[in-house]
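Quick one: structure for this chain?
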Amino acid sequence: MCAVPTPRRLILLRHAEAAQPDLGNFSPESDMARPLTHDGEQAARRCGIWLRDNNLLPDTVLCSPAIRTRQTLAGIQNVQPANAQPQVYLCPEIYEAGPSALAMAVQQLPEQAHTVLLIGHNPGISEFARELDSQNETLDQGFAPGSLAVFKMRGSDLTPDQSAWADCASMNLTLHTFTRP
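Got it. Here's what it folds into:
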């Protein structure tokens, strides 16, 4: 009996709602230190519940090192099953990154990664999503804090798998779900 392959899925998540920046302090250090608000913490938890309930437990996470993205990840992990321990990479290149930098981070993923969660910032996350599936009008809503876009890679559900993260591009990823739990 043949094993059913696990499709490759890329989940883009804009961090949950963060505190406003300190007045007059526009430094990168100040921005990186912005925590989630109480509402943001609750939204991160809802994202984790939604991922769990939809069988989208990531095996790999690419996360900006900003406090608000790490707190979003923590909120998600707090509601995941104890045996769900993804490989987490804190990636400075994701902070304030544009679509090409985000694509490069995804293209460097290991072959064994199948369900990848990328937690980042706008406008890069929403621009990257639009590049991956420019024909899908659902993405015209924009990415509010705590929004998730789930993309499925074509050919990744075949045996043997005919896809690779190095080939991650708009030609082989399609939007499956866009939500704000």
